[in-house]
Design a protein that fits this description.
310 residues, alpha/beta, Arc Repressor Mutant, subunit A, D-Maltodextrin-Binding Protein, domain 2, 6-stranded mixed beta sheet, 5-stranded mixed beta sheet
Length: 310
């Protein structure tokens, strides 16, 4: 009697497909650029977000890799999860709209100057043409924003920021201003090249990164005030605290200010940008098309690829 013994190797367990919450968390980390940023968006602690990603990556199923500079890069699996999450998010938004849910507002991030001189007066035209409401947020430090915190970014720049596409929508011209009372006490030599001997109101924070304000730092004079707000600089200038470099549109024609005859830096471009990954979303792409018509800008330009997000 023959007895045959067969050994059956246990079948490898199939990997469980990711759930929506997993996809959403991976998308949050990718768009925020960091665990801490994703945690803020989700309203949880960084340790909680870290545990969630660790669970998603258990069993060697890596989603993120860190490069030599500490940047977070997507693996092939991570890229597939991000793409799936974006499709699901778009599908949910479309389905919600079909059932009468109000559209999500378009988040526009701007600084004081670009909000006041370019965006605020144009948004009524957008509202007449679209059912999507605009959420205009005025911030001091636009450079610190992650793509998950805005849909559209409007700021002075020399071109689209890395990882974005955008169009130039205008330019800011500069002028040096002071209060008449200040100039009566401390006249400025017409056509002079420096502000030596004068009190100067300078930029701080991210505002100091703008080319015009960098020029002011080298123009001489004693710093009387540092401020990240052009409106605060203007008020201090009106009150006689010193000389300020202001956008021409904020100072010219004001009886409380007098323009100084001195060479100033060239104008700075203003760019309207969207994250390259999100620019194809219907509400964002629609706003970009409207903005090009409204401001007369050229076709959008793409920046160089973004460096790995931290």
């Amino acid at each position: 009697m023959k007895v045959s013994i067969r050994f059956r190797m246990p079948a490898m367990a199939r990997q469980k497909p990711p759930e929506w919450n997993d996809l959403h968390d991976v998308l949050r980390v990718h768009e925020a650029g960091s665990l801490s940023g994703a945690a803020r968006v989700a309203g949880v602690s960084q340790s909680t977000m870290s545990r969630r990603i660790a669970a998603i990556e258990s069993g060697g199923r890596r989603v993120f890799l860190r490069d030599a500079d500490g940047g977070m890069c997507l693996t092939e699996r991570g890229a597939a999860m991000v793409a799936a999450a974006r499709r699901m998010r778009a599908g949910f938004a479309s389905g919600a709209a079909a059932f009468g849910a109000p559209p999500q507002p378009l988040r526009i991030a701007a600084c004081e100057v670009t909000a006041r001189l370019f965006i605020a007066h144009a948004l009524p035209d957008w509202s007449r043409r679209s059912e999507i409401p605009a959420d205009l947020v005025v911030l001091d430090d636009l450079f610190a924003l992650s793509p998950s915190e805005y849909d559209v970014l409007v700021m002075p720049a020399e071109g689209p920021l890395p990882g974005t596409i955008g169009s130039e929508i205008g330019r800011i011209e500069w002028g040096l201003f002071a209060a008449p009372s200040y100039l009566a006490a401390r006249p400025v030599v017409a056509g002079g090249g420096t502000l030596d001997g004068h009190q100067v109101i300078r930029a701080s924070g991210s505002l100091a990164m703008i080319a015009g304000y960098r020029w002011l730092d080298g123009a001489g004079g004693r710093t009387a005030l540092l401020s990240s707000s052009p409106l605060a600089q203007r008020e201090a200038c009106i009150r006689g605290q010193g000389i300020a470099l202001l956008p021409l549109a904020m100072g010219e024609g004001d009886a409380l200010l007098e323009r100084i005859d001195m060479p100033v830096p060239g104008c700075v471009q203003v760019w309207l940008m969207a994250d390259a990954d999100g620019a194809s979303h219907a509400r964002t792409s629609g706003f970009l098309r409207w903005a090009r018509r409204r401001f007369g800008g050229p076709a959008p330009e793409a920046s160089a690829p973004a460096a790995p997000r931290r």
